[in-house]
Write a structure and sequence with these properties.
Layout lengths: L1 H10 L2 H28 L3 H5 L3 H21 L1 H4 L8 H22 L4 H4 L2 H4 L20 H17 L2 H29 L1 H9 L12
Length: 212
């Protein structure tokens, strides 16, 4: 009983509130620029391919930094509504976190770090690249966005800040818009092979049996 009381005291204390505050702040500062990055990459992939990677990222990265800085300057407004730490929500957050990690491990076996940085989209040096259809990509076309949803949902439940919940709600239409742009760009690069892949594998809801 004393251990339970000590854990409850910790979870309701200043330490956990501080962790929740800074985790929420980091999330709000980092996640919107990540979305902005893809909105700057996919619609203009053809334009960026005509430039060097230095010019591409030298243009995009400052925009992302400014966006993050603006959000940080408004942190008091964004983090005004806080519902407090709740143990059931922390448990649910832990489950979602484990789900995200599980997806991440499977995704990392197939996806190079250069793809996460958008290099194949903005660089034509290596041709169209390779269409990934094995591993987890034989069950779901966009596992990294499901992974991101699990992570963001776990952070929202753990921190219990209104702003992070709103960001989680905004995640869904933003991801859908990014996916539409991404698939259009992949269709341009891989043509009929990507069409066949889309017919065989769903976007977000994984099929239970791995495709051969």
């Amino acid at each position: 009983m004393q251990i339970v009381a000590a854990v409850k005291l910790l979870l309701n204390g200043v330490v956990m509130d501080t962790i929740a505050h800074y985790l929420s702040l980091i999330t709000l500062v980092c996640v919107p620029p990540m979305f902005l990055f893809w909105f700057l990459v996919h619609p203009f992939a053809g334009h960026w391919r005509k430039r060097s990677l230095f010019v591409t990222y030298g243009t995009i990265v400052p925009i992302l930094i400014v966006t993050g800085a603006i959000i940080f300057s408004l942190r008091t407004v964004f983090l005004k509504v806080y519902f407090g730490i709740r143990i059931p929500l922390i448990i649910a957050a832990g489950i979602l976190l484990l789900a995200g990690v599980r997806i991440a491990v499977s995704r990392a076996r197939c996806l190079r770090s250069s793809v996460l940085l958008g290099i194949p989209e903005v660089s034509g040096r290596d041709g169209p690249g390779i269409l990934i259809t094995g591993g987890i990509y034989s069950r779901i076309r966009h596992p990294r966005y499901m992974e991101g949803f699990c992570y963001l949902a776990s952070i929202a439940l753990f921190t219990n800040y209104l702003a992070v919940y709103l960001l989680l709600v905004a995640y869904l239409p933003m991801v859908y818009a990014i996916v539409v742009l991404e698939e259009r760009e992949l269709l341009d690069r891989f043509g009929e092979a990507y069409v066949r892949y889309c017919h065989a594998v769903p976007r977000f809801l994984p099929i239970l049996r791995q495709q051969k």
